[in-house]
């Protein structure tokens, strides 16, 4: 029987893996490759802060799984994984409902010989009182669009009344990691764009943005020489940055810190910390950690089952020579997908599986069109600091690499051309 590879989660890592396995093993008929995702379309997650600010129309950058499967010799199944039967090698998918709650696709089970789990992560509000109720999150396109709509609604309301000149909109972002600081800069840009379109005449400085960080500095996971310039740029843009300020409660009116400081906010975004989806916790006896990540070995096989692999944000993968796990980043998911293309072929051929080693090629932080800051790491050059236009170019190239893995060089070039032409004919902001 043909070897059945089932990949659950078509995100930054899973979709690249399905595409590349489809083009190789699937096309030759060596294996049947099936991708399962809870949604019908894919958007690269690092773009979500741009969707939230309205600087990116997500419909232009989305990819349809059904079409991608047809073009790349794999099958697509719509469904949300909710269970696993390791004995019978089956995953269980929940029924998919339409917007009215009617069943669209029934609950069902799928058999596998090799299972790859790449279901990503969601934001971790650490159980903070009121956070789930009052904060917006940026885990999915829907959530990012909801934030954008709420921001736009404030402008539209002010536009229709006499309030415009005095209306203030306070946005509080919890977490000064990459997502938080990039969103802050993108919102500052949005305020200027919306003013330029004459919407509501709310002055750009009346969109007040505050970033609140529990740690002593912005970008705590990155080297200080990146955090320093980013902090300065944010302050230059008029963003208030509060460090050493842990949020202990979120209310309808704003945020309350552990020291009792109250930060008034109309819109509140929680962008601090991650955890893997709850359904993974101890699933079918597999080893998981306190944030529900599946524990894997350097081969990316789960510690208790050789037939099950996990990678990307939902996997806890040890780094050789360090007590830290591989960080939850798109570049790690991309590298691990490349390794698994080889591993799954070798598994079918009976070869020894290679081990994954995380290569940090550096970190780039985009501050909208104002700047980008980061470092690039190379074997020969060591760490090189980049800032401004050049850093922005490298930042954009990360997304181009993802597109190349999905579409190949020619179609990526056509997409780039299309978006350049579109820039001249469409508003620079999504205004609906
Ligand atoms: C706003 C933002 C900005 C970011 N910026 C950067 C950046 O600049 N650089 C960087 O390296 N990283 C960045 N990241 C992190 C990066 O997006 C993630 O590390 C990366 O997307 C992880 O890839 P993944 O394949 O593990 O998961 P994802 O890309 O999250 O994909 C998970 C997929 O699984 C599907 N899924 C989830 N649950 C189920 C289920 N039960 N059944 C079926 N399907 C399911 C989802 O629909 C999704 O398609 C950013 C993240 C955010 C939120």
Report on this structure:
This protein has 9 helices and 27 strands. With 432 residues, the chain is α/β, with parallel strands linked by helices. The chain folds into 3 domains: 193 residues, FAD/NAD(P)-binding domain; 140 residues, 3-Layer(bba) Sandwich (FAD/NAD(P)-binding domain); 64 residues, no CATH class. A hairpin with a 3-residue loop joins strand 25 and strand 26. Helix 1 runs parallel beside helix 8. The N and C termini lie far apart (51 Å). The model has no long low-confidence stretch (mean pLDDT 90).
- The oligomeric state is single chain
CATH architecture of the largest domain: 3-Layer(bba) Sandwich
Strand order, largest beta sheet: 5-2-1-11-23-22
* Cofactors, ions and other ligands in the entry: flavin-adenine dinucleotide
Estimate the helix proportion, in percent: 25-40%
Mean pLDDT: 90
Whole-number total of structural domains: 3
CA radius of gyration is 22 Å
**CA(first)-CA(last) distance:** 51 Å
Q: Please state roughly what percent of the residues sit in beta strands, choosing from under 5%, 5-15%, 15-25%, 25-35%, 35-45% or over 45%.
A: 25-35%
CATH class of the largest domain: Alpha Beta
Number of discrete helical segments: 9
Write down how many β-strands occur, each being a DSSP E stretch of 2 or more residues: 27
The CATH superfamily of the largest domain is identified as FAD/NAD(P)-binding domain
CATH domain topology of the largest domain: FAD/NAD(P)-binding domain
Structural class by SSE content: alpha/beta
Shape call: globular
Could you describe the largest sheet, including whether it forms a barrel?
Answer: 6 strands, mixed
Low-confidence stretches at least 5 residues in length (pLDDT < 50)? Answer: none
